[in-house]
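Can't attach files on this board, so I'm pasting raw text. These are the components:
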Amino acid sequence: METAWLTLGALLTIFTFSFLYKDNVLYKIAEHLVVGISAGYFVVLLIKTNLWPIMSQRLFVKGDEGWALDQWWYFIPLILGMLMWTRFSKKWSWVSRYPLAFYIGIASGLTIPLELKNRVVEQISASILKFKFDFSATGFLMVPQGAWDTFVIIGVMCCLIYFFFSKEHKGWFGGSAKIGIYTLMIAFGASFGYTVMARISLFIQRIQYLRDWITAITS
Amino acid sequence: MTLYERLLVLDRRWIFLILAIVIVGAIFVPITIPATAAKEVEVIYNTIEELKEGDYILVAMDYDPNAMAELHPMSYTILEQCFRKKLKVITLTLSQNGAGMVDEALKGVADSSTMYARITPKYGTDFVFLGYRPYYALVILSMGQNFRVNFPADYYNTPLDSIPIMKGIQNYDDVKCVISISGGNVADAWVANANGRYNVKVALGTTGVMAADYYPFYQSEQIFGIIGGMKGAAEYEHLAKNPGPAIEAMKIQVFAHIVIIAFIVIGNIGFFMDRRARKRSGGQE
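---
Top answer:
Structure tokens for the assembled complex are below.
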């Protein structure tokens, strides 16, 4: 049975890779299977591990005398969730704005202060206060760590200048903006290198899978 | 048509084919690539090594099967290290298609620990799988109050209070650190909500595509370590003296990267030669 599943996985892998030659019906089969199974799996998982436990362990509790209402306030999210389905009715779709308003309000309230702290305040602090400018310690490529710290500060400042459009990029300002572009290019290069590695990793894993499959069916 | 003009209009399928041949061929090349662990990977390994027997650790395996090529080797090595150290491991997933995969992986790690390390981690005593809950940011925030807010029961629907490992365990204060092995934006939520809100020690294992975006958090000390992609996984396997699929994959990566670099160089030569030829003939660039 295990070999049958392995074979199914191997065939779907080959179907998917066939797209590299050109779009074809085998690729479409694999693509539709992924979308369908993912959606179906997610729906069943949500009902089985989230909706049903909340209803059967919190909203209602089974006691000696049968089911009894317990934590009634779980009706509030349940009703709000059900109201979202009104989007499918032209007449009642406006009702769905209320649960959406709750959701957006809560999400914004939670996210904005934390994002401001994590992505702005902490990063500014790290770009200014956390550098030690230690020129005695050796860093990457045997260059003193202090030199790297200085390089990062200059890079950050030049990138900010590059995105400052209220002054024409001429003279020293234009030169700094150019350094900013080069700094960004280094960052994009690092990101691209990692991306190539990631994509090749996925391909290698599939080739390893196909190797294991061939070993399994031939042994 | 000149050689460099031909290079510029080369059918990309030739590149795919050459790359595939090289990768398949590299599997059979019997060489070992020396691995040196980066500081940001080593710090995670050392942190787990320094924990005492019975200490709690939270390992969040927040990825789908589409990221398992890069992230499974990290999960396996970290979990095996935790079991070898006899730590108490709480696992969960905040990725919607990850629950079944994580459940299977945990069983696989427990089996491999029994087979290779002669340790038999027991479900409920040595590790627990809390399962999946939607809206990861809210789940991470609520676990700062109590794990039971979002996980009243584990993946198998057993109430948390009746699982021995979870008795007396309330929230992040009871775990020494969080390792999030993540294939998406969940990593942001761990940094923002667990570290930012509750000051929990967080380390990340990320896919290669994500890694460069999360290094600033390491520099700002919002995370204490980062394992980036297959390379990071190979470094971790090397540190744990537990060679696995990542170290094997890095050997193949080297050959693939040589081919890609060669194609980039050839493509650029073609581009510049073509531009020079156009300039000489007085045409537009």
